[in-house]
Amino acid sequence: MGSIVAIEVSNLSKSFKGKTALKNVSCTINEGEMVALIGASGSGKSTLLRHINGLHIGDAGAVYIFGTVLQSQGKLHSSIRALRSQIGCIFQQFNLVNRLTVIENVLVGNLARLPILRSLLHLFTKEEKIQALAALDRVSIIEQAYKRASMLSGGQQQRVAIARCLVQGAKIILADEPIASLDPESARKVMELLVQLNRQSGITVVASLHQIQMVRNYFDRAIALKDGKVIFDSKTSELNDTKLNELYGTAVEELVLRGHGELMV
């Protein structure tokens, strides 16, 4: 039995104000894979992720989710809402509503499946609340369920965002620099949680990361981008320092050091 293709990107190109962001990008990611997107700032990592969930629309090329076209030749497919409900997104800025409680933030993961009135009024059933608490338990943060999101640390907020993906029933998690704002210990916990969801639940994880050490520690496969083009797509075991220097030259420092100058180990 062949592997199921979760994400297929075919000859995707995108320019913003005349500047090329993606150039003929193609890649195939199978269900249950855990793939890192690497590259220096401006390489196209975040732009690619935003095309995979339809937040950006390409100028040319196509994106397929589980074999169904999400976007093609500059147009989103009519079933975009149903396709997006299978894709959970985690961002560097956490994207939580600070004034809501943790559990309310997690329940928002259900909105795509709820009738409009119920979602607007935030009317959730007992079963939905139990499901949300189970998701918070799974990410080891259930004791924070009724605190306002604004009271949580960055690492805790990121775990709430992951719990929201679980309640959503996401089969794919796209994580855009999910650990960039976190201290090393919180970053490690978030990465271990993503690995756990990938291995235990078969959730496909695609994460853009700066820190090559994290990529080597947690991912089997890496796709490297530079100037909007794929320049490497293979096992992370092949991404030794010599290969990195070959790919990125002087820009390699940005992938080894964090923004505030500490080595990420």
What do you see in this structure?
The protein is an alpha/beta fold and 265 residues long. It has 2 domains: 1-86 and 171-182 and 203-265, 3-Layer(aba) Sandwich (Rossmann fold), CATH 3.40.50; 93-170, no CATH class. It is 34% helix and 27% strand. The strands form 2 sheets. A 6-stranded mixed beta sheet has the order 7-8-9-3-10-11, with helices on both faces. A 5-stranded antiparallel beta sheet has the order 2-1-4-5-6, covered by helices on one side. The longest helix has 18 residues, at 184-201. The chain is globular, with a radius of gyration of 18 Å. The termini are far apart. Mean pLDDT is 89; it is low at 258-265.
Give a nutshell description of this structure:
With 265 residues, the protein is an alpha/beta fold.
Please give the order of strands in the largest beta sheet: 7-8-9-3-10-11
Q: State the CATH architecture of the largest domain.
A: 3-Layer(aba) Sandwich
How much helix, percentage-wise, in residues? 25-40%
CATH superfamily of the largest domain: P-loop containing nucleotide triphosphate hydrolases
Poorly predicted regions are 258-265
Largest sheet: 6 strands, mixed
